[in-house]
Design a protein that fits this description.
Blueprint lengths: L1 H16 L11 E3 L1 E2 L20 E2 L3 E4 L12 E7 L3 E9 L21 E7 L6 E8 L4 E7 L2 E3 L7 E6 L3 E9 L13 E9 L4 E4 L15 E4 L10 E14 L2 E15 L5 E6 L27 H4 L30 E5 L6 E10 L4 E10 L2 E7 L4 E8 L2 E12 L3 E12 L5 E12 L5 E13 L3 E13 L4 E10 L16 E11 L7 E15 L4 E15 L4 E8 L4 E3 L10 E3 L2 E9 L6 E12 L5 E12 L4 E22 L2 E23 L2 E22 L5 E3 L9 E17 L2 E15 L6 H9 L4 E9 L2 E2 H9 L18
Parallel strand pairs: 1-15, 2-5
Antiparallel strand pairs: 3-5, 4-14, 5-6, 6-12, 7-8, 7-13, 8-9, 9-10, 11-12, 13-14, 13-15, 16-17, 16-45, 16-46, 17-18, 18-20, 19-22, 20-21, 21-24, 22-23, 24-25, 25-26, 26-27, 27-28, 28-29, 29-30, 30-31, 31-32, 32-33, 33-36, 34-35, 36-37, 37-38, 38-39, 39-40, 40-41, 41-42, 41-43, 43-44, 44-45
Length: 820
């Protein structure tokens, strides 16, 4: 396998070295003008500012038929101007049947069944990262950061827009302040720009600067803006104070709390920004989708806290940062003395403060610095003999630190170094991790190479050092795509203080071949076929783990019906090195054959349905897994939408770790059945106000029928007389009812009601009625909270006082803050 990988990489490098060095990409450009008086952002392009504005036109279809001119009936013209405050766009989008334009109302940062117009701006014109600003025909804003086609919608900017639907067209007017953009400090600016419109009824996407779908990433086809020069950008300083109040009831006890704090954002210069959170409040973050975890590893939950999701693309380099570690579980677990028990053990640690500084220099060097401090946390321990209590420190004062240097070069390449550090006060565990990452794409955008090297150090009664390495190469153009990769992790690799390690002590070899349609053909708009091979071995000592062969496919018809199918097999079985939970041991699993199919109906219709079925059949009688997902949704009107989801998983005769008795590892054979039901309904009053109901019920039961002793060769010997105390039924029930009102740009009021219950029963095969009786007999969390945050921009406040305290929401000239 190693020799095959070496040969393939050698061939690819030879092809790269003999490839043509330059591949000219035709790009559009536009030279824009400075205006003296800002237009009023109302969706009507009748202001003086638009009279002599240059026009971007002649859009070209990107999907599904790549490269053809936009039809005259959809003619799209965009006017662009600027001043010292920011840049303005006025787009007129023709429509042959304006009365049928899709304009479903959604919450901010959600695109429903809508036509939309969007702008991609790249202040460094480096073809790698753009800011995305989208406005739907319903007037809903969506914004994101796009890095080499990877979209991060957690970023939220403060910008201004309006939509006007006329008899034969719809008009979009947008103002983007410089405070939301990043660009070098130069007298003459050259920015990257692309713009697109979505015509939902035909599923077509049209772009201003043509994009070649056959190779490279979307961003390398950006056009360019010229003419922005000698701008006197305002101070980038904003505050977001908040006040919140909570009424919480749990198990008959009611608590009331009132909190206040502030987020601060300061532009150190045009390129670098400081974000700081002072007195954090995350009480309204979404509940985690809790599950019963029987695996060898912890569940990795998504981040829900806005500060840790917004503007973190630099800190995500190399996957060394798992933000849930900051303020997560305490690191200490004290041993109890005789006759002692925990009466309280915190599941999280309070955050004192956090800040991040990020930006990019003129020569493309990105710099990111993150720091957070969490407070001391104690558990309460009771002596059951004398009824006394004591406090035990389980997490000291802790500092989390990340430094990232990311140098971009070429049009789609970068080299990065990342360091993370966790320092705990006193005799607690400290940790450090460093990674070096290279991502290289040739000038023709046909080949991509990547290489990573990482090291981890853990200081806890000695030093533990581990390493990780990755090497890969891919052909990224044309109908036929290929890639191969080799990666490994040593057994002592551990980044779990500020990252997430998961699997360790392995070496993997993987390969991929894919075939795709570049243009619609026959009854299909798109077709993707890919074949994958994956081989894993234990690194120390060497041991075959598994060989996976995989095929999957995806198709979209011209009527926008999506479907696909695939299969996967492990013809040699698996030697699972993780399930025994003891280093050096493994569990031998039989081979399986997995097959699946899925479909989703036309997304443009009011009633939509997606469903999938996935069946694992093991080479052992009666052993298998069946997974079924059904997800209908119905758009009742442009304002009201209902989404349902049901997931069923039936697993028979699965084998997993149960107990460790001295040197004996006990493995159990179990049946596990899981049902997850969820409901979401949204009523959107307008593009600033919404009511959202979210419900989720997770149910799983586990029943053991046999127990075994694990042998050194990975096989199992039946263990008789072992007491079964491991049958389980687990329920998790959550309801969120949320009212949101974006009453001013960047400002929000949220009223939230929550109900949460869970139950864990050491029994299975409980009937439906009794299961819910037990669930609703458990202590419940009932919470009602109100949170109000207000966005304050330094320049608006300054001009408010300067201009006789005119309301900052009233129209004004560009000499104050623009008509918004």
């Amino acid at each position: 396998m190693k020799s095959i990988l070496f040969i393939i990489i050698t061939i690819f490098i030879f092809q790269l070295n003999h490839a043509q060095e330059n591949d000219t990409i035709p790009r559009k450009s536009i030279n824009i003008i400075r205006i003296a008086n800002a237009p009023k952002i109302d969706g009507i392009l009748d202001d003086e500012a638009w009279i002599n504005a240059p026009i971007a036109t002649n859009f070209v279809e990107r999907t599904p038929t790549n490269g053809i001119a936009i039809p005259d009936s959809l003619q799209t013209n965009v006017k662009i101007v600027y001043d010292d405050l920011g840049i303005y766009f006025g787009a007129t989008l023709n429509d042959p049947n304006i009365t049928n334009i899709p304009k479903e109302l959604t919450e901010r940062d959600n695109i429903g069944n809508d036509d939309f117009f969007f702008i991609l701006l790249n202040g460094y014109n480096d073809r790698q990262q753009s800011l995305q600003f989208i406005i739907t025909a319903a007037g809903v804003q969506y914004d994101a950061k796009m890095t080499n086609d990877n979209e991060d919608s957690s970023w939220n900017g403060v910008w201004y827009s309006a939509v006007q639907i006329n008899e034969k067209d719809w008009v979009v007017e947008i103002f983007i302040p410089y405070s939301e953009l990043r660009f070098p400090k130069k007298n003459i600016q050259e920015w990257g720009l692309n713009m697109e419109r979505e015509y939902r009824r035909s599923g077509a996407r049209y772009s201003w600067s043509p994009v070649d779908n056959s190779k490279g990433s979307f961003s390398i086809y950006d056009g360019e803006i010229y003419g922005i020069q000698n701008i006197n950008t305002p101070t980038r300083l904003s505050f977001q104070p908040y006040i919140s109040t909570y009424l919480n009831n749990y198990d008959g006890t009611t608590e009331v709390s009132v909190n206040g704090g502030m987020d601060l954002k300061y532009g150190i210069n045009d390129a670098f920004t400081l974000d700081m959170i002072l007195i954090p409040d995350f009480g309204q973050t979404k509940f985690d989708d809790a599950v019963l975890n029987l695996s060898a590893f912890e569940v990795q939950y998504n981040e829900q806290r806005p500060f840790f999701t917004e503007g973190t693309e630099l800190f995500s380099k190399g996957n060394l940062f798992y933000s849930r570690r900051v303020g997560g579980n305490p690191s200490g677990r004290p041993e109890l003395l005789e006759n002692e028990e925990f009466t309280s053990f915190p599941t999280t640690v309070d955050l004192l403060n956090a800040l991040k500084i990020s930006g990019r220099t003129d020569n493309g060097l990105g710099i990111g610095f993150f720091n957070a401090v969490t407070k001391k946390t104690y558990a309460t321990i009771k002596n059951t003999e004398n009824n006394t209590f004591r406090k035990q420190l389980v997490e000291p004062l802790t500092n989390y630190n990340i430094l990232v240097l990311d140098q971009r070069f070429g049009e789609n390449s970068s080299v990065s170094i990342v360091n993370t550090n966790t320092t705990r006060d006193g005799n607690f565990r400290d940790a450090n991790a460093t990674g070096l990452y290279l991502d290289l794409t040739n000038k023709k955008n046909t080949m991509n190479y990547w290489a990573n090297a990482e090291g981890s150090w853990v200081m806890d009664e000695g030093t533990k050092f581990g390493t990780e390495g990755v090497l890969g190469i891919a052909k990224i153009n044309g109908k036929n795509r290929l890639n191969v990769q080799m990666d490994y992790r040593s057994k002592d690799y551990d980044i779990n203080d500020l990252g997430y390690s998961g699997f360790t002590n392995y070496i993997n070899y993987s390969g991929y071949y894919g075939y795709r349609y570049l243009q619609p053909k026959g009854f299909l708009n798109t077709m993707y076929l890919n074949f994958n091979v994956f081989h894993q071995r234990r690194l120390e000592p060497d041991l075959f783990s598994n060989l996976i062969l995989n095929f999957n496919s995806s198709f979209t018809t011209k009527e926008f019906f999506n479907f696909g199918f695939g299969f996967e097999t492990t013809p040699l079985g698996t030697q699972d090195i993780y399930e025994p939970r003891v280093a050096g041991r493994y569990l031998e699993l039989p081979s399986y054959y997995d097959q699946w199919i899925y479909f989703s109906t036309d997304y443009r219709k009011k009633l939509r349905l997606s469903a999938s079925a996935d069946w694992y059949k093991y080479d052992e009688k009666g052993r298998g897994i069946l997974n079924i997902d059904v997800n209908p949704s119905f758009q009742v009107s442009d304002k009201f939408k209902v989404l349902l989801s049901t997931t069923i998983s039936l697993s028979d005769k699965e084998q997993g770790f149960v107990d460790l008795l001295g040197d004996e590892i006990v493995i159990g054979s179990r049946n596990r059945n899981t049902i997850i039901n969820s409901l979401e309904s949204r009523y959107i009053f307008n593009n600033k106000m919404a009511l959202n109901l979210a419900f989720r019920h997770y149910y799983t039961e586990v029943q053991y029928d046999q127990f075994f002793n694990l042998q050194p060769n990975g096989t199992l010997d039946l263990r008789n007389g072992y007491e079964n105390t491991f049958d389980t039924t687990y329920n998790s029930w959550n309801i969120d009812l949320r009212y949101s009102w974006w009453f001013a740009p960047g400002s929000q009021l949220t009223l939230l009601y929550r109900n949460a219950i869970d139950s864990y029963i050491e029994n299975s095969k409980i009937n439906f009625s009794n299961n819910f009786n037990i669930l609703f007999d458990q202590p419940q969390i009932n919470s009602l909270s109100l949170r109000v945050s207000y966005f304050l921009d330094y320049n608006r406040m300054k001009n408010w006082f300067k201009n006789d305290r005119i309301s900052p929401d009233q129209p004004r000239t560009a000499n104050t803050y623009g008509k918004i």
